[in-house]
Design a protein that fits this description.
With 694 residues, this protein is α/β, with parallel strands linked by helices. It folds into 4 domains: 3-175; 220-304; 331-463 and 483-549, Ribonuclease H-like superfamily/Ribonuclease H (Nucleotidyltransferase, domain 5, 2-Layer Sandwich); 593-680, Rossmann fold (3-Layer(aba) Sandwich), CATH 3.40.50. The longest helix is centred in the middle third of the chain and has 26 residues, at 259-284. The protein is globular. Residues 550-592 are annotated as: Disordered.
Length: 694
């Protein structure tokens, strides 16, 4: 606003007998102020607010003010957001009788102005006197979750009430239609955004934002744990990529003391292990007999009671007999050191912090399987040429805290990362450093200060299609295709990593022997990869200036990839359904969006709508549809399936090669769409955007 206009506005106020009435008369007679942005009405209103602070003698009380307040209240529902605070301040609406304000907001609500009623309630701080479920339900139906968060933002008691309500809705037996039925005529109603899955995500977001105890929401927590149990059974019995000990650790800790989860565990055991195997596992997990399905309970009665429960020892043919298929640690077992005291750690740092040293760095944390909060590092691995150090980070930090030297360990870690004379090797280092910062706040700036780092994930980006394994391999049965670091190890060193311990409980102490060997291998293989690539980069499709191009570079983008691998552990994402191949395929020929037709699984409706905006021919499964319907549509109409998570394994076997693609369900729709477009080489032109009916 020009200085001249401001001065003219102020002169006008000075000439008015009642500036408050004058402003109100102007706003009531003009529609200019209703627009977005800084209208003339907005400028005049904010100038009056400033002018009144400089002229406190302006009468601002009495019957006349009450009349003005009543008129202003009638206007507020039409106000742009930027005018609310100035008008509330000028006309002292916080002094209006609270019952009058509540009645006015209730009137807005009954008119169907739910958003306006909520915003005004927030501005006037009326929430403690309102029904949180009643106020928030229509907002959620209109996909206004952010407004709901703001509505309860300053009131812990309302946060708990809202979370308890949402958790009730997430009970599998609860019929969502009981909530939506009274709002069938609601404008901007988005039923596809109102389902158990969306509500569950919202609950977890609110739990994390407001730091509320997850125990307040047993239904959501139990459903998340049930998905974890299903995933663990999938990893163990379908993919066959978890050891028995690792799997047993997780199923028992996931079911915990919850009787409902214990009953679900019994059902899964019966389905995957048969009655006899399930009975033995039920004994081992100490599942209450009254929770067991009848066939399992009957089998359990037939088992002889023993002092020591016999363990199920289902042999894993990929463990001992096929160890030759996997990368093996080339150093003796006695050269792997598990460090839990400061004295041991000092000896480690004396060897690591040497100029010219090359160090393989990796970290492990307990898989969260989607629970609230960032993962905390449980193990820090440092690999040198002849030995590997495994640092028990929680124990060492606890000791330092008890001794009043909490900064000691972070100081050494920062020294390592900041020393340009020491080469640090990693894979997706940003993900590790993010978890390190969540574990110890003193390390939050480590990524900004680090020098001399080599993130080998960059190798995958530098002509990765030129990489070729040094040795050919026979097929390894039904084992899952390698990815990430394991794939890089296979390309460069000839054999992949054995990842069966990747999803271990890394907080357990003592670690199992298989965990120790896995952790050491994960860090040590980085040294061998780096040495091999530096000796002969051209044979792997890389430039001769490999060292110069990689040292000091670290990609921030791989963070999600690294964290997902360890923390949330989805099934293969961002990959196409395809058989084994000896050579990487060429990029597909460019397609226009009009030539590209897909069917989106029901967890990817946001992706489907985004692709449709870009002109892609999209069919969406409904929330209640079985995933297999996607395969049926794909075969009948020649569409590509877009899916995520566990359904990928089922669907890709039902369509032709290259006709099923899995995206990361935790990515936003835009990121998923970019991944799909890049993979299938779909070229979007300006004319394609909004070329299809939305």
């Amino acid at each position: 606003v020009s200085r001249q206009l401001k001065e003219e506005i102020r002169r006008g106020f000075a000439r008015l007998e009642d500036p408050l009435a004058g402003l109100l008369a102007m706003l009531e007679s003009s529609s200019d102020w209703k627009g977005k942005g800084h209208s003339l009405g907005y400028c005049i209103t904010t100038e009056l607010q400033l002018w009144m602070k400089e002229h406190p003698a302006v009468p601002q009380s009495g019957t006349k003010l009450e009349e003005l307040q009543a008129r202003v209240l009638g206007m507020l529902s039409q106000c742009p957001a930027n005018l609310l605070d100035p008008l509330i301040s000028i006309y002292q609406l916080h002094t209006v009788d609270r019952n009058c304000l509540l009645e006015h907001v209730s009137h807005l609500y009954l008119q169907g102005d739910y958003k306006e009623a909520a915003i005004l309630s927030i501005k006037l701080k009326l929430q403690p006197d309102q029904d949180v479920e009643k106020m928030c339900t229509p907002l959620l139906l209109q996909d206004k979750a952010n407004l709901v968060e703001d509505y309860v933002g300053e009131y812990p008691e309302l946060q708990r009430k809202l979370l308890q309500t949402l958790d009730t809705w997430c009970d599998p037996s609860f019929n969502i239609r009981d909530i939506t039925r009274p709002y069938q005529g609601l404008s901007r109603y988005k039923p596809e955004k109102f389902n158990h899955r969306m509500l569950s995500k919202l609950v977890f977001r609110l739990l994390e934002r407001f730091k509320v105890d997850p125990a307040l929401c047993p239904n959501v927590i139990n459903q998340r744990h049930l998905r974890t149990l299903n995933y663990l059974f999938y990893k163990r019995f379908v993919e066959k990529t978890m050891t028995e000990e690792n799997w047993a650790d997780h199923i028992q800790s996931t079911a915990g003391e919850s009787r409902w989860l214990q009953a679900q565990l019994a059902r899964l055991l019966l389905r995957h292990c048969g009655a006899r195997g399930a009975a033995r596992w039920a004994q081992r997990c100490q599942l209450p007999p009254e929770l067991l399905p009848p066939p399992l309970a009957q089998e359990l009665q037939r088992l002889h009671l023993q002092d020591r429960v016999e363990e199920v020892t289902e042999a894993d043919n990929y463990e001992d007999s096929k160890k030759k298929d996997y990368y093996q640690l080339p150093i003796p077992r006695e050269n792997i050191h598990f460090l839990q005291t400061w004295e041991e750690t000092l000896q480690c740092w004396g060897k690591v912090l040497q100029p010219g040293q090359v160090v393989g760095v990796d970290m492990e944390w307990k898989p969260s399987f989607g629970t609230v909060g960032k993962p905390r590092v449980a193990l820090l691995q440092l690999a040198l040429k002849d030995e590997v150090f495994l640092l028990d980070l929680p124990r060492l930090l606890q000791q330092a805290e008890a001794q009043g030297h909490r900064e000691k360990l972070p100081h050494f870690i920062q020294m390592l990362y900041a020393d340009a004379a020491i080469t640090k090797l990693g894979y997706g280092m940003s993900g590790d450093l993010s978890s390190l910062a969540a574990t110890c706040s003193a390390l939050k700036d480590t990524e900004k200060q680090m020098q001399g780092v080599v993130d080998l994930l960059a190798v995958d980006k530098q002509k990765a299609e030129g990489l070729s394994p040094e040795h050919g391999h026979e097929e390894r049965g039904a084992r899952q295709p390698e990815k990430g670091l394991s794939l890089l190890v296979q390309h460069v060193l000839g054999k992949p990593l054995d990842k069966t311990e990747q999803l271990s409980n890394w907080e357990r102490r003592p670690l199992r022997e298989q965990q120790v060997l896995y952790a050491a291998s994960d860090a040590y293989c980085l040294l061998e990869i780096y040495e091999r690539l530096c000796k002969d980069p051209e044979s792997f499709g890389l430039g001769s200036d490999l060292t110069e191009s990689l040292v000091g570079k670290h990609s921030k983008k791989p963070r999600a990839k690294k964290q997902l691998n360890k923390q949330e552990a989805p099934s293969p994402s961002g990959q196409e359904c395809q058989g084994p191949r000896a050579e990487p395929s060429r990029p597909p020929a460019p397609l226009s969006p009009r030539e590209f037709s897909v069917v989106c699984d029901n967890m990817l409706q946001g992706l489907g709508r985004y692709l449709r905006c870009l002109g892609v021919d999209v069919r969406l499964l409904d929330n209640g549809d079985d995933h297999r319907k996607a395969a049926e549509i794909a075969r009948q109409e020649g569409r590509v399936i877009l899916t995520s998570g566990l359904p990928y394994q089922t669907l890709c076997s039902q369509v032709g090669e290259g006709r099923c693609f899995s995206v990361n369900c935790s990515d936003k729709a835009k990121e998923q769409a970019l991944q799909v477009l890049r993979h299938f080489n779909v070229q979007v032109a300006l004319g394609d955007i909004f070329s299809r009916c939305q």
